[in-house]
Write a structure and sequence with these properties.
Blueprint lengths: L1 H17 L3 H12 L4 H7 L8 H38 L18 H15 L3 E2 L5 E3 H6 L22 E3 L5 H9 L4 E10 L11 E11 L4 H16 L5 E8 L2 E10 L16 E11 L1 H6 L8 E8 H9 L12 H4 L3
Parallel strand pairs: 1-4
Antiparallel strand pairs: 2-3, 4-5, 5-9, 6-7, 7-8, 8-9
The structure holds adenosine-5'-[phenylalaninyl-phosphate].
Length: 340
């Protein structure tokens, strides 16, 4: 029996050394120390021993049990430590790894121009107002004195939603909305999207942006209009930029003009960008508010006069940043937009 106990001890130590996980270790514990385990089997046979041998074998069996228990405990601790180390290793953060770059967006150049313009006009005492992109034919044409047969009313120039509703072709209907709501003095600007059946080319897009400016008060003159335009152009582009007024015809202003600004490349000297003229593209349309428009909006033209202009924000952005193609503003190419 003594030999059997020593053999069990030796085998247990060897087999426990080979164990690699907790589950297997528990199986070994049951195999050697459990109720039906090998040590218990030996102790069961003690009845056959003599009275002298019994305490000796009993003592030895307890020693063997303690040794096996100690082996199991040691291995249990080792396995636990190994598991902990593996967990720490798997959760390790490599602080030397370069971080993921955060991508910060920014204002689109068109929105920057719009906000810059609003800022300039607010500093000159203007209110900023908004108008809807979907308008009535009445506000977009009739109230603005456009004759029934005006070409801009044509289906080939304007996006109609119904016979009486359209996508506004200009921000000028905001003039009508403001004048109907408010008594003079009026001093507003209003920016937003406008829509026309225009083919895309370097300076035209079917969806573009305008800013409307309207001043109505007693004694407003053409000199005030010219001055206001000159101030904002120099404020926005720089004092080396000039404006040129060309006579034009709008149904809602009399007299009317179109305004060009100096070429952004040569500042008026003449270069290949401006075909040697020294002037960049047309920026805006303007004029003195037509007495018929004032009347239609309930303002007495005998007492009040006003000026208005509508400028292309896309064109202003092109001049400001030296762009020669309007498509760049709508292509959403990050290589272009990232430069701003
Ligand atoms: C008008 O729209 C008038 N409502 C402006 C106005 C307001 C005149 C108040 C008098 C008083 P016009 O069609 O010229 O005018 O357009 C004004 C500006 O919008 C142009 O000078 C140009 O800068 C811009 N624009 C016009 N069509 C396009 C287009 N398809 N794409 C980009 N910009 C455009």
């Amino acid at each position: 029996m003594k030999e059997r106990l020593m053999e069990i001890k030796q085998r247990a130590i060897e087999e426990i050394k080979e164990v690699i996980d907790m589950e297997e270790l528990d199986k070994k514990r049951v195999e050697f120390l459990g109720k039906k385990g090998e040590i218990t089997q030996v102790l069961r046979g003690m009845g056959k021993l003599s009275a002298e041998e019994r305490p000796v074998i009993g003592k030895l069996a307890n020693e063997v049990r303690s040794v096996i228990e100690a082996e199991i405990e040691t291995l249990k601790r080792d396995l636990k430590n190994k598991a902990k180390e593996a967990k720490l290793e798997s959760e390790k953060i490599d602080i030397s790894m370069p971080g993921r770059k955060k991508y910060y967006g920014h204002r689109h150049p068109l929105m920057r121009t719009k906000e810059e313009l609003e800022e300039i006009f607010m500093n000159m005492g203007f209110d900023v107002v908004e108008g809807p992109e979907i308008e009535t034919v009445y506000n977009n044409f009739d109230a603005l004195n456009a004759p029934e047969d005006h070409p801009s009313r044509d289906m080939s120039d304007t996006f109609y939603i119904t016979e009486n509703i359209l996508l506004r072709t200009q921000t000028s209907p905001v003039q009508v909305r403001v004048m109907k709501q408010k008594e003079p003095p009026i001093k507003i600007v209003s920016a937003g999207r406008t829509f026309r059946f225009d083919d895309v080319d370097d300076t035209h897009s079917p969806m573009f942006h305008q800013m409307e400016c309207l001043v109505v008060d007693k004694g407003v003159t053409l000199a005030n209009l010219k001055d206001t335009i000159d101030i904002f152009v120099k404020e926005l582009f720089g004092s080396d930029f000039n404006t040129r007024f060309r006579p034009h015809d709008f149904p809602f202003t009399e007299p009317s003009a179109e305004v060009d600004v100096s070429c952004f490349k040569c500042k008026g000297k003449g270069c290949d960008n401006c075909n040697g003229t020294g002037w960049a593209m047309e920026l805006l349309g303007c004029g003195m508010v037509h007495p018929n428009v004032l009347k239609k909006c309930g303002i007495d033209p005998e007492i009040y006069s006003g000026f208005a202009f509508g400028l292309g924000i896309d064109r202003v952005t092109m001049v400001k940043y030296g762009l020669n193609n309007i498509r760049l503003l709508f292509d959403n190419d990050m290589r272009f937009l990232d430069q701003f």
